[in-house]
Amino acid sequence: xxxxxxxxxxxxxxxxxxxxxxxxxxxxxxxxxxxxxxxxxxxxxxxxxxxxxxxxxxxxxxxxxxxxxxxxxxxxxxxxxxxxxxxxxxxxxxxxxxxxxxxxxxxxxxxxxxxxxxxxxxxxxxxxxxxxxxxxxxxxxxxxxxxxxxxxxxxxxxxxxxxxxxxxxxxxxxxxxxxxxxxxxxxxxxxxxxxxxxxxxxxxxxxxxxxxxxxxxxxxxxxxxxxxxxxxxxxxxxxxxxxxxxxxxxxxxxxxxxxxxxxxxxxxxxxxxxxxxxxxxxxxxxxxxxxxxxxxxxxxxxxxxxxxxxxxxxxxxxxxxxxxxxxxxxxxxxxxxxxxxxxxxxx
Length: 347
Ligand SMILES: *Cc1c(COP(=O)(O)O)cnc(C)c1O
Hints:
Blueprint lengths: L8 E5 L1 H14 L4 E2 L1 E2 L1 H5 L3 H11 L4 E3 L5 H5 L7 E3 L6 H10 L2 E4 L2 H9 L4 E5 L17 H4 L2 E6 L10 H14 L6 E3 L3 H4 L9 E2 L22 E13 L4 E2 L5 E2 L4 E6 L16 E4 L2 E6 L7 E4 L11 E4 L6 H4 L4 H6 L3 H4 L2
Parallel strand pairs: 2-10, 3-4, 4-5, 5-6, 6-7, 7-8, 8-9
Antiparallel strand pairs: 1-11, 11-14, 11-18, 12-13, 14-17, 15-16, 16-17
Bound molecules: pyridoxal-5'-phosphate (PLP).
């Protein structure tokens, strides 16, 4: 079949920067090795692009949330290196784990019993030390269902690693205590921000996500982490408004004088959410092109007064600096990445 022409927008993923970030986080993990959180399609940047780069940089352990995310990752790495954070919530998922070789993260006594009943074998175990999302309670460490498990990675997750919170030390102490009571091969506590908390938090394996993709959850990482994602969109059409004409749904912008505007090929379906509209701008060669009116599903309109030379087909830079405080007034860096739409990723 004839290949479809490319869309008028593109996500540029700097795989060299991604590999650099993994190596830097691995080095910052000291004697521990860094794995990689690759859930949510590598935080929106695309498993197809990111997982091979992480693998080639040396990463050996990959974390996804859902069983449905395993296959795409396992095209590039051995399935035994893929850990599924939600664990086996039913028998079909146990069967899928056995069929693929992906490793479940057990989160409850019930999941432990289900995994053992399905045949058992190597698994990981999540212990909740305070975030109260998933995981067994430390008091359940001695339960027979847990004793029956063959545990590779014993893990817990920090709730406030991006803050200077007393909770970090409390969770560290709780994790150390429980690790002494459950047989396991490797221990793992730190996410991206946790790596910056120092060697005490690293154990055997760290689990960075955000910082791999260019996010800086703590100032200590700012000098090390390189930006990975950038977004560009093309002008589809230019037009001149006369005074009194309005732009977009609900006519929320009205021109007070004649002005040249451009309709640009990016919208909320691509992850450019509506709260990023009014007050924000796209850019061209350092020139700021304010957004006019509401963000549509597939389009946004910008003021071309500062760039009279631009024509349909010219590419604009869409601000996607996930560490920029101004952009974070609308979305957290995690959201800025994970809301990037499938169309923008080119899948
Ligand atoms: C998402 C996730 C990570 C990665 O966290 P970041 O803050 O993105 O580094 C690590 N561990 C678990 C259990 C997660 O769910």
